[in-house]
Write a structure and sequence with these properties.
6 strands
């Protein structure tokens, strides 16, 4: 199974709350560029799960509109979610939902990619970074990093 993990694009530094921070124009351009760069791979995505925060909603919307997909907003994709809870949800997800894309925040995206690959902190996840992982089961140390695309 394939799992695509994307960190939101560059967001404004200040807002009323962390949840309401929006993408900047630069952030929108970063996400669009990554989608263009990896269009053939992302065309396989069947499901998008995204954090409900504004910047991740906006990031996921760019991807969804590019590839004609719907977005499911998941509270478990906020940055404070324990990795174990996300792995449990992925493990319970029906295989028909894959290839799946997750759009979330640091530190969760970095913990997920590195935890699944057993790579410590080897794979950085900057804004608009996109990782492609392959695994038969979604558990620590059980995935292989196919590729990691940083914003151009």
């Amino acid at each position: 199974m394939l799992l695509f993990v994307m960190r939101h694009g560059h967001a404004e530094p200040l807002s009323k709350s962390d949840e309401t921070r929006a993408l900047t124009e630069e952030g929108r351009a970063e996400v669009a560029a990554v989608c263009k760069e990896r269009a053939s791979e992302l065309a396989q995505v069947k499901t998008i799960w995204a954090s409900p925060f504004v910047r991740t909603r906006q990031t996921a919307k760019i991807v969804a509109e590019t590839f004609g997909l719907e977005i499911e907003f998941q509270e478990l994709l906020t940055s404070e979610t324990p990795l174990s809870a996300l792995l449990e949800a992925l493990g319970q997800a029906d295989e028909s939902l894959f290839p799946m894309m997750l759009v979330s925040h640091q530190p969760l995206v970095g913990s997920l990619v590195n935890g699944l690959c057993g790579s410590g902190n080897e794979h950085p996840m900057g804004t608009a970074s996109l990782a492609c992982l392959r695994a038969d089961v979604w558990a620590r140390d059980c995935a292989e990093l196919e590729w990691l695309q940083h914003r151009p």
